[in-house]
Design a protein that fits this description.
InterPro entries: DUF3987. The relative contact order is 0.09. The strands form three sheets. This protein has a three-stranded antiparallel β-sheet with strand order 5-7-6. A two-stranded antiparallel ribbon has the order 1-2. A two-stranded parallel sheet has the order 3-4. The protein is globular and about 75 Å long. A hairpin with a 2-residue loop joins strand 6 and strand 7. It is mainly α. It is built from ten helices and seven strands. Among the domains are: 45 residues, no CATH class; 89 residues, no CATH class; 55 residues, Orthogonal Bundle (Arc Repressor Mutant, subunit A), CATH 1.10.10.
């Protein structure tokens, strides 16, 4: 699906960028006077792909305009092919999961006199609010400030949206399972949401080098041009400083982002293709 974006309609990608925030959508087809208006649109997408396709699907402009960071990615460590066996998911687990989902689906929001559906709103407990503020100020904002990678900065912004959604989902699921009441989002749900957010951040850090393969930003391109055909790590760091790149940024580039452009000849020694 993603590879066909904008092929027939140049606004596909921009629409999905807006859809993440639930921006109202209207569509008019003049040929048959068709008019569609969605006041609260949403779309859940799940899929899989090969590592070699990540750069084409999420690299380039999509890694900078927030499109890539709208997708939560899972990239587990798999060193060997899984073996075949007769193990399957226990039937009682599947039944319990179906029971939970049906109960969630059965939650009906109140309806106003004119038939309009009113949302069920859950506020945060004071302790949950403090927990989230602490995560925001001490973890997410720090990572944003320390990072020189625009993709990582974009992810920080989207994670702040996702963590609120996770809090709501976790609180409702805990309420369905009898672990809590569905009256407010408590500190336990906030803590679990933070753990989930940091898991996806770790997954993104693993997948970013795959996305950035073959894609260089202007600063890295400039660094590559200035470097001689053969160079050492210290020479690359010194050259990077001249154009405003920190030592950690240059070393990360040599380690992760330049695999299509340089070859590691020995420890601390490189040559350009």
């Amino acid at each position: 699906m993603l590879s066909n974006f904008n092929r027939y309609n140049g606004s596909d990608e921009s629409y999905f960028l807006s859809l993440f925030s639930g921006t109202p959508f209207k569509y008019t087809r003049k040929s048959n006077n068709e008019y569609i208006f969605l006041s609260q649109p949403y779309c859940s997408i799940i899929g899989s792909t090969q590592p070699g396709m990540l750069s084409a699907l999420f690299g380039g402009k999509r890694s900078l305009n927030g499109f890539s960071s709208r997708f939560l990615k899972v990239y587990p460590h798999i060193s060997t092919m899984p073996s075949w066996n007769e193990t399957s998911m226990p039937g009682e687990v599947l039944e319990e999961w179906e029971h939970i989902i049906r109960k969630v689906d059965g939650i009906k929001p109140p309806t106003a006199q004119e038939g309009k559906i009113n949302s069920i709103e859950l506020s945060f407990s004071l302790s949950a609010k403090h927990r989230l503020i602490s995560w925001k100020n001490e973890v997410n904002s720090r990572i944003y400030s320390d990072s020189e990678n625009e993709t990582e900065k974009a992810l920080c912004g989207k994670l702040e949206t996702y963590i609120i959604r996770f809090c709501l989902v976790i609180q409702v699921m805990r309420g369905i399972c009898g672990e809590a009441e569905i009256k407010e989002i408590d500190e336990e749900s906030a803590m679990r949401a933070i753990m989930l957010i940091e898991y996806f951040r770790a997954m993104e850090s693993r997948i970013t080098p795959e996305i950035e393969v073959g894609v260089l930003d202007l600063r890295h391109t400039e660094l590559l041009v200035l470097l001689p055909q053969s160079f050492t790590t210290s020479e690359a760091v010194a050259t990077g400083r001249k154009i405003g790149l920190s030592e950690s940024t240059v070393k990360r580039f040599l380690r992760e982002g330049a695999r299509d452009f340089i070859r590691k000849e020995a420890h601390g020694h490189y040559s350009k293709f």
